[in-house]
Amino acid sequence: MATANLQKALSVMNYDTRITPEGTIITDDGNPLLEDEESARRSRRRLIIGAVAVLAIIIAIWFLSRGGAADDAAAPKTQVPVVTVVSPGRGSVAGQINATGTLAARRALPVGIPGEGGQVVRVLVEPGQWVGQGQVLAVIDRSVQVQQQASQAAQIQVARANADLAEANYQRALRLVDRGFISKADVDRLRATRDSANAQVRVAGAQLGVLQAQSARLNVVAPAAGLVLERRVEPGQVVSAGSGVLFSIAKGGEMELLAQVGEVDLAKLSTGVAVNVTPVGSDRTFAGQVWQVSPIIDAQSRQGTARVALAYAPELRPGGFASAVINAGSVVAPLLPESAILTDEKGRYVYIVDAANKVQRRAVKTGLVTENGIAVIEGLNGTERVVLRAGGFLNPGDAVKPQTAAAN
Question: Where is the Multidrug resistance protein MdtA-like C-terminal permuted SH3 domain (predicted)?
C-alpha cells in the first residue's frame, strides 16, 4: 500500500515538488499529496467511534432493563404501607357535652304599679342592691289620697254619733213601753234605726279601709327577696298601670345559663346533671346543674335549651355569654380518637389489622364523645389492632405493616 502511494506521489512530482526532512512530499501550494490516504484514515476512525458508541448504548440499555426488572421484582415488598395501630382496651369513659348560652335570672320578677299611679316622689333602690320581701322600692305622691282618708275618717265619726243617738232612743223606748207611753211598733222602728246607724258606721269604716289600701298601693314594693337587676323609673316621672315594668328583680339572686344543645345531645340530658359554667371574660368556673330540659327543638337551628341553675356570684351577669361542660354520664367501652372512626353510606366503621397483617372492615356504634376521644359501645372488645389514621386510603384485604402505638 505504501509503495503504491509513493509511486503515485512520484508520478505527480514536478519541479515545484519538494520533500521535507521527515520524508513528506509537499506540492507548491503546501497541501499533502497523500490527502486520499488521510481521508481514508479519518473514515475508519469515525466508523470505529460510531461502533463503540452503539455498543455502549446497547450495554446501557441492557443494564437499565435488568435494573428495572429487579425493581419490579422488589416493588411488592417495598410498597407495603406502614400503618399505626392501637389496642384500645376497655375503660370507664366519662361523657361530656360542650355548649354555650346566655346567662339570665332564673326567676326574674317584673315589678310595676299595682294601683292608679301618680307622680314618683322617691326611688329608694339601685340596680345591684339586695331587697327583702315587701320592701318599698319607690314612693308615689299621695297628697290627694291623704285628704280623702281624712274626709272618710270624719264620715266615720258622724256615722258613729248617729249610731250612739239611735241606741239611746231605743233604750229609752224600752223603758217607756212598759208604762204604756209608746207602742211596741214605735220600739221596733227605733230598733231598726239603731241597727241602720250601726251599719252606717261599718260602711264608713270599710270605705276608709279602701282609701288606705289604695294609698298603700302607691308604694312600689318588692314581691319577694332578691337582687335588683333593673331600675326604669326616676323621681318626677308620672306612672300608671300602663307604664309597664319599673323594676326587675332576680328572686333570691338565683341565676341560670340557657345552654343551647343539639337535638342529639339534648336527648342524653336529664335534670340534676352536673355542669361547669365559665363566663366570658372570667377565669372562674361555677358549678351548676340542669334543672330543666326544653321539651321542644328549634326547627331552624335544630337545638334545644338546657336550663342550668347557678347560685349567685358577681361574675354571673344576666345577658352575658358563657360556655358550659355538661356531664353526660359514663360507660365502660373502648376509647378511640376521631381519626380512627370512618363513616360512609353504610354507617360508622373502623379498620382492624388481623393476624395475617391484612386490613379488615369492622362496623361500630359510637357513644359518648369526650375531649380524649369517642367511646365505641358496639363492634369492638378492645383487644383488636385498630388503624388510627389514614384509614381512608386503605381497602379491605390490603396487606400492611402495623406499627403499634400507645393507647390514649
Answer: 335-388
